[in-house]
Design a protein that fits this description.
The complex is a heterodimer. In chain A, 28% of the residues lie in helices and 23% in strands. Chain A is of the alpha+beta class. In chain A, strand 14, helix 10 and strand 15 form a beta-alpha-beta unit. Chain B has 2 domains: 74 residues, Roll (Ubiquitin-like (UB roll)), CATH 3.10.20; 69 residues, Orthogonal Bundle (DNA polymerase, domain 1). Chain B is globular. Classes of the chains: A alpha+beta, B alpha+beta.
């Protein structure tokens, strides 16, 4: 029998009862009553408070750490430093992991962990941190990635040599890697163009901004077994990494994921978790570490700042002839920015034959960058879609028409060498053009912008289980952490496949790492897709088992039994006169049914979106207000419509913060100056209007119900859509983010002076 | 060890006594001493609203209130919002309209929104947006939260 990956069984004509509706989230009740247990909500008997001491310097040699006075403080039960972590080869992946958890030879950013304590109370733990004496030898630092590339810049890692450049020499550098993606003939392409526009763009680092700070509870037993509770997107991956950096066998580490209070890519790696385990081992008691908001800003998650140069050519008739880009990604103190997504995704959606995109990843004295929705893509799409807007203006074409004229369709071979399957970019653009919003009149000082975006969507290693109880109720166990209601959508697919009401399916349990085989992390818009495939596969196995059992009970062949809507029946009257058997009948007679599915899921379908945004600019102050916003995006199939809308709206809101306000601000001393929600200004309710959504559904036939991922695309076009709208409103094009009032005011004033 | 004070507070109608250190916040005590973990900590600096509670009828960030300041006062938290199995209309609308995605900010929004509707049963969208501007949500873009509050207000007015 063909596997579900070869034959998804997608049927565009299937009448759906559950999929495509908007039932209440199964986990929602606990979230509105305060019952849901997040990372910081677990307390164990005898639990200690863990606290981490962090470097105030952006770059320094860590000469010595004296913890004796802290250890002597009554109530302090354990202190750990770099000496408690096994050494790993410097410059290796494991070496970076352990050094980001706790500084070893050097501190590499303001906020880098240098020691930790566990104490019987928060106040004692804080007092103990003050008693730790750290001797630093300060070194010159570098914050901006372009400065970090210059000759003579302070070097973070003496061992670092650029990968991807032949003959790069043997001198230390801050450039981790160069990657190039190219196809066609770029020179010939630009020769065919009537108009060529080349521009430079800059975006500043931001934070994912999840409201729940990282939190964990570690309990190390005398048997050498680790129990860890934490908020993470990647519990299986964390287990594997902890095993390496703590030298504890995987079978002795069990991680239970809490409810996840926002993550957006920022909870894909470990921070305090290994420290809590080490403290627990020393103290022989459970230890909880909850990061403060300031620690979250200084030591977790930021998103790369970027510099990019974008060049595109177009004919008078509006056909793109070539696109070229060069970009620099700041990755913080260690590699891992996933910058390579950018050159691959930035132009993908246009039918371009001549493309060259070169990207560099650069270390500097900032916290290690972590993923954020469509990692790496939005800040360079900001540049691409700004240039596309300028090209449309240059040849006098409607910006959506221009995109329609150049839209990639099925069969287009991308710069990363894959041919696109059935995709919905054209349909998305047409739907956008048909919105009332796109035709609505604008008020004074207002401007309208549009921009498009792409994300390939991910799949990968996934496993899960479907159990049926004697009363016919269905119980799901998933290995993918629920990020925003995914488990609810996945249960809807199980109900649909089994043809039973949704209320016969349990709220899926999220397995701990002992209960299922490896699951790739929750990221890349992969979960509803991948765990959906797994659950449908498991449901099909359960149906096959029920048909087998019914055939046995009736003494007929399996082919003579059909299953539909919760019952096994005879395929045709000639088989015999048998009463249909319900799921409960079959399980009661034949014993429990438990069906697992585990595989490397493939077949994720690319997603495309177009955003339309109206802004109003105050030319006196440089302040920009979002007046109207519409997100148009291809979901393939919206399993739960309201949740899909929520993804679109949330992505647009996050992108709005990125575009207008959010940035990491460093002083000359290399210290982060705005490590709080007061000074790091994320959008609040009064900053935004309602966000309209249009769900386009061009099915992905590789999925049983046609879905694509919807988590990443909604943030991709936002920055450029807003920049294009601001350009119309103020008459000058911003090329640096955020478009905060002081920056825009400067632009407006400069333009005013430039004019006669 | 710091001196501990004995504090008596009425929490969701129930008289509770607890020892606390002078620097402990009401949030710390609710979560760690009284095990009422529905009230969340997002920043501990009064900037995110995740720890919103009602203190003697006033909406406060419990991270900015010292526990000893709550002596003799009434505290209302998310745990007291539903009456038995019956959700408050705000809770029901947030649930039904998917106004809660990850859910970490939800208790704070619910408490803040209830305080608004007690003062202003018929708020405009703008009034709701400005009242809730002290509560951060990173998932939803606020759209479904605002709609839920307006719908709950309408229902509670019997309109």
């Amino acid at each position: 029998m063909a596997s579900i990956l070869e034959e998804s069984g997608f049927d565009p004509h299937k009448k759906l009862k559950v999929v495509g509706t908007s039932p209440v989230k199964l986990d929602g009740f606990d979230k509105v009553t305060g019952r849901a247990k997040f990372g910081a909500d677990l307390a164990l008997p005898g639990m200690l408070v863990g606290k981490i001491l962090r470097s105030p310097h952006p770059h320094a040699i860590l000469k010595s750490i004296d913890t004796s006075r802290a250890e002597a403080l009554p109530g302090v039960m354990a202190v750990v430093t770099r000496d408690d972590l096994p050494d790993q080869i410097q410059g290796s992946g494991d070496g970076d992991l352990t050094r980001n958890v706790m500084a070893r030879e050097k501190v590499l950013y303001d906020g880098h962990a240098v020691a930790a304590v566990a104490a019987t109370s928060e106040s004692i733990a804080k007092e103990a941190l003050k008693l730790i004496r750290v001797e630093y030898h300060k070194l010159p630092h570098v914050i901006d990635p372009v400065e970090a590339m210059r000759p003579g810049a302070p070097i973070l890692h003496e061992y670092l040599r650029t990968e991807g450049i032949k003959g790069a020499g043997d001198k230390p550098t801050n450039v981790v890697e160069r990657q190039e993606f190219a196809m066609g003939n770029i020179q010939a392409g630009f020769k065919q163009a009537d108009v060529v526009i080349e521009r430079e763009f800059k975006t500043n680092p931001i934070h994912q901004g999840y409201i729940e700070p990282q939190a964990c509870v570690a309990n190390y037993s005398e048997a050498g077994r680790v129990e860890l509770w934490c908020c993470t997107q990647a519990h299986f991956g964390m287990r594997d990494n902890l095993s390496v950096i703590l030298n504890i066998p995987k079978e002795r580490i069990c991680i239970t994921a809490s409810e996840l209070g926002g993550a957006f890519g920022g909870k894909t790696i470990m921070y305090a978790e290994p420290v809590a385990i080490l403290l627990s081992r020393k103290a022989k008691r459970p230890v909880r570490i909850v990061l403060t908001r300031s620690e979250v800003f200084r030591a977790t998650g930021p998103v790369s700042g970027t510099h990019s140069r974008i060049k595109m050519g177009i004919t008078r008739s509006g056909k793109f002839t070539a696109a070229e880009a060069e970009m620099v990604f700041q990755t913080g103190a260690f590699t891992g920015s996933m910058y390579y997504n950018a050159p691959q995704c930035m132009f993908t959606r246009y039918d371009l034959q001549n493309v060259k995109a070169v990207a560099y990843e650069v270390v500097s004295n900032r916290p290690k960058v972590n993923a954020f929705r469509a990692p790496g893509v939005p800040p360079v799409v900001f540049g691409v879609e700004s240039v596309v807007d300028e090209l449309a203006q240059a040849i006098g074409m409607d910006p959506i028409d221009l995109r329609l004229k150049n839209a990639a369709t099925e069969g287009y071979v991308t710069v990363y060498g894959e041919a696109l399957g059935p995709i919905g970019f054209v349909q998305t653009l047409e739907a956008a053009k048909n919105t009332e919003h796109y035709r609505a009149p604008l008020g004074p000082n207002q401007g309208r912008g549009v921009a498009a975006g792409f994300w390939w969507n991910r799949a990968g290693d996934t496993s899960g289980r479907l159990d049926i109880a004697a009363d016919g109720s269905v119980h799901l166990t998933l290995g993918t952490i629920d990020i925003a209601g995914t488990r609810s959508s996945i249960s809807m697919m199980a109900a649909e496949e089994l043809g039973i009401p949704l209320d016969r399916v349990s709220a899926p349990a999220i397995a701990n790492t002992d209960q299922l085989s490896y699951n790739r992390l929750t990221a890349g818009s992969r979960v509803t897709f991948s765990s959906g495939v797994i659950v449908v596969d498991a449901a099909r196995k359960a149906i096959a088992e029920m048909r087998r059992r019914a055939a046995g009970i009736w003494h007929v062949s399996e082919e003579d039994v059909v299953y539909a809507d919760g019952f096994c029946r005879v395929a045709k009257p000639s088989v015999g006169n048998f009463m249909p058997l319900s799921i409960a009948d079959i399980v009661k007679q034949g014993g429990p049914i438990s069906c697992e599915s585990a595989m490397v899921v493939t077949g994720a379908g690319p997603g495309f979106g177009l955003h339309i945004v109206d802004v109003e600019a105050d030319k006196e102050t440089g302040a920009v207000k979002i007046v109207r916003y519409t997100v148009v995006e291809d979901a393939g199939k919206a399993i739960n419509r309201r949740q899909v809308e929520g993804q679109y709206q949330g992505g647009a809101a996050q992108g709005t913060g990125w575009a207008l306000n959010e940035e990491y601000i460093y002083g000359e001393d290399g210290r982060l100056q705005n490590a709080s929600f007061l000074d790091y200004r994320m959008p609040v309710a009064s900053d935004l209007p309602m966000i309209d959504t249009v769900i386009v559904e061009v099915p992905n036939p590789k999925h049983p119900y046609g879905l694509r991922g919807v988590g990443e695309v909604p943030v991709v076009p936002t920055l450029a859509a807003i920049a294009n709208a601001v350009t119309k409103a103020i008459g000058v094009r911003p090329r640096e983010l955020p478009m905060s009032p002081p920056r825009l005011l400067k632009l407006i004033e400069a333009a005013g002076k430039g004019k006669p | 060890m710091a001196t501990r004070a004995q504090v008596t507070v009425t929490v969701n109608g129930e008289l509770r006594q607890f020892p606390c250190e002078p620097q402990q916040t009401l949030l710390d005590v609710l979560r760690d001493e009284l095990q009422l973990t529905g009230t969340k900590e997002g920043c501990a600096t009064g900037d995110c609203g995740a720890c919103s509670v009602i203190l003697d009828g006033r909406l406060v960030d419990s991270c900015l209130v010292l526990a000893v300041e709550a002596q003799g006062k009434k505290v209302e938290t998310i745990e007291g919002m539903a009456k038995g199995q019956q959700l408050h209309p705000l809770q029901r609308h947030i649930l039904e309209q998917n106004g809660s995605q990850c859910g970490i900010c939800t208790p704070g929004f619910l408490i803040a929104a209830r305080a608004l509707l007690e003062r202003n049963p018929d708020p405009t969208e703008t009034e709701v947006r400005y009242w809730l501007a002290g509560n951060l949500c990173r998932c939803t873009g606020y759209d479904k939260i605002i709609r839920s509050v307006l719908a709950a207000a309408k229902e509670m007015r019997g309109a």
